[in-house]
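Quick illustration, no need to memorize.
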Amino acid sequence: MNETIERDSTFVIRGYELRSAIIFVVAFIGVICNSFVALFTRRMKTMNNPFGWLTSSQATAEIVQCSVFAFYYAPMVFL
């Protein structure tokens, strides 16, 4: 499980560091995108209906989930 990828003698990437970085980047992008969705569905007049409310609440739940992955799970994988 602790395989390493050697590029040269001074720069070594361990497998878990790479995995942690990928998880963090993807989750952080998810937080940003879902924040925009939640913000814009609440501001748009055409989304002021049950579908818009469900979309906004789903985006809010995804913000929480992506935040947990970015700021709790990714550092645990890194360590």
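The mean pLDDT is 88.
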